[in-house]
């Protein structure tokens, strides 16, 4: 993605956050926008510890509690998505930016002979899954807004 498009995307998500904060009556703090921008500059999944360390490295003065609270706001505003990949970490939830992303699924590959230590996460989109979703909607008379599908495994030798 080129720099101009990235700047437009950042401006758009900041507007989404501004409108959400106004609608909910939350404070409009610069820290929230800084955290949001850092998340949208990432190209991978992250956890709170990752984000906190990144913010410290960039000399931002933000507490881990602020990050946790801000993450909850971003989740509710639809700006990020939460995942439970089953990894063994201090903060077991992973997150990813979601505002511009289409629905996708995950293949979680664990390191061999480890206790759920993640080697790699592969995102994929398979049109057959869309067909399954549509069949479920028809069979049960519902409209599915989103879904999550995770496959877990290790690489073959």
Describe this structure as you would to a colleague.
By secondary structure, the protein is α+β, with helices and mostly antiparallel strands. It has 2 domains: 1-98, Winged helix-like DNA-binding domain superfamily/Winged helix DNA-binding domain (Arc Repressor Mutant, subunit A, Orthogonal Bundle), CATH 1.10.10.10; 102-156, Ferric-uptake regulator, C-terminal dimerisarion domain (Dna Ligase, domain 1, 2-Layer Sandwich). Helices cover 45% and strands 16% of the residues. It has helices at 3-24, 30-40, 48-57, 64-77, 127-140; strands spanning 80-83, 94-97, 105-110, 118-124, 150-153. A 3-stranded mixed beta sheet has the order 4-3-5, with no helix packed on it. Strands 1-2 form a two-stranded antiparallel ribbon. Helix 2 packs across helix 4. It is globular, with a radius of gyration of 18 Å. The N and C termini lie far apart (35 Å). The model has no long low-confidence stretch (mean pLDDT 87). Its cofactor is Mn(2+); Fe(2+). Belongs to the Fur family.
Brief digest:
This protein is α+β, with helices and mostly antiparallel strands and 157 residues long. The protein has helices spanning 3-24, 30-40, 48-57, 64-77, 127-140, and strands spanning 80-83, 94-97, 105-110, 118-124, 150-153. The strands form two sheets. Strands 4-3-5 form a three-stranded mixed beta sheet, with no helix packed on it. Strands 1-2 form a two-stranded antiparallel ribbon.
